[in-house]
Write a structure and sequence with these properties.
Layout lengths: L4 E6 L3 H16 L3 E7 L3 H11 L3 E3 L2 H8 L3 E4 L6 H10 L3 E4 L7 H10 L8 E3 L7 H12 L5 E11 L13 H4 L3 H4 L2 H11 L2 E9 L10 E8 L4 E7 L1 E13 L2 E7 L8 E5 L5 H7 L10 H14 L7 H20 L3 E2 L8 H4 L17
Parallel strand pairs: 1-2, 1-4, 2-3, 4-5, 5-6, 7-10
Antiparallel strand pairs: 7-11, 8-9, 8-14, 9-10, 11-12, 12-13
Length: 372
């Protein structure tokens, strides 16, 4: 077996403790990775994570860690406003990167990172879109690709969560320049990424957004209508006003409906496939057989990244594949601010929404965000 991949973790907060470190620990037990360093500007947080996870070296300076530890892979779990600097720094040091969502606050930032990637064989920067990697999503994507359940016609994508004032007391949240947006960017991007993973490229979006309750500079709710390249249409809701929290995707096809209802992660049991009345039961039963249960989590995506690293190939959720969902977020904001439909590929250098998700608009009051 090849040697373990020398890995460093950047950011010693909640996402590192709850998601990154458990996935890394499992792959370390399997001999795939070795966590050699942790980095955070808070020395006490670094010390706590090192003690908890048995990490040998700690740093408060990313550049120094890159020079001293020479990691093969850097896992980044810091606020999105610093992702561009940290990801490009790691790439320039020759390390692959796995970066938490939201990827970066703008398409310009994303493309700047892409320009820093190596030639064929890496290093590459991938982004955390873990809902693609559960067995349920793989099964439904296969059903759609094989065509037995018919063409997808109508879809619904919902991220209806609840966030209070304490959530937004974190200084970088709710600000365009540091988070890149509100729930559309920071929360709903996961479900929207899964929707695109299932249905393929989107073609057109029309949207509204508003700030209805919270004292933030971004939106706290958005609603969008999507048309996909394959002809399907969809509604997308992203909200932080829902005490009855849910994450949901529903795809109505010609011969069946595939539906997922969960909150922050799913198992096979959270999916249903409902056949049309005329479908033979034996065929419908095969659609409902999801096979072995692989829950959506950071672990299966990290496995895929490690496999890509060892093969020297571009990992999933990187490059153009990682950009689609961020482009959709930018298009939702542009449509909400301008009141006009936005086409895929429209937001390019020279467009104000290419460099900032709010298009460089002035600070907004508590009225609806849309000016259309």
């Amino acid at each position: 077996m090849s040697r373990p991949i020398r890995t460093a973790i950047v950011g010693a907060g909640k996402v590192a403790r709850d998601s990154h470190l458990p996935a890394l620990a499992q792959l370390a037990r399997e001999g795939e990775v070795e966590v050699v360093a942790a980095v955070d500007v808070d020395a006490a947080a670094v010390a706590a994570v090192r003690a908890e996870a048995g990490i040998p070296h700690g740093y408060t300076d990313l550049e120094r860690m890159l020079a001293d530890a020479c990691p093969d892979l850097v896992v980044i779990g810091t606020p999105p406003g610093v992702h561009r600097e940290q990801v490009t720094g790691a790439l320039r040091a020759g390390a692959w990167v796995w970066c938490e969502k939201p990827p970066v606050p703008s398409l310009a930032d994303y493309d700047a990172i892409l320009a820093e990637e190596g030639p064929e064989g890496g290093p590459y920067a991938a982004y955390v879109f873990q809902h693609r990697f559960g067995s349920g999503a793989a099964h439904v994507r296969r059903l759609l690709a094989e065509g037995g359940i018919g063409r997808p016609l109508v879809a619904q994508c919902e991220t209806s969560w609840y966030r209070d004032a304490a959530y937004y007391s974190v200084p970088w949240r709710g600000r365009w320049e540091t988070e890149g947006g509100g729930p559309t960017m920071g929360l709903g991007i996961h479900q929207m990424d899964l929707l695109l993973h299932l249905l393929g490229p989107w073609r057109e979006v029309r949207a509204i957004a508003a700030r209805l309750r919270h004292d933030v500079r971004t939106e706290d709710v958005s609603v969008a209508l999507l048309r996909f390249a394959g002809g399907a249409v969809a509604t997308v809701v992203n909200s932080v006003h829902s005490p009855a929290q849910t994450s949901r995707i529903r795809v109505d096809c010609e011969r069946a409906t595939a539906e997922l209802t969960h909150l922050y992660g799913y198992r096979n049991a959270d999916w249903t496939v409902t056949a049309a009345p005329e479908v033979p039961e034996a065929e419908a039963a095969a659609w409902r057989d999801f096979g072995a249960d692989v829950p959506s989590s950071h672990l299966p995506q990290l496995r895929a990244l490690v496999a890509s690293f060892r093969a020297g190939r571009r990992p999933p959720a990187s490059g153009a594949d990682g950009r689609h969902s961020l482009e959709l977020v930018a298009a939702i904001y542009k449509s909400a601010f301008t009141g006009a439909p936005v086409l895929a590929g429209e937001i390019a250098p020279g467009d104000p929404f290419y460099t900032a998700m709010d298009g460089g608009a002035p600070v907004l009051d508590a009225a609806p965000v849309s000016r259309g």
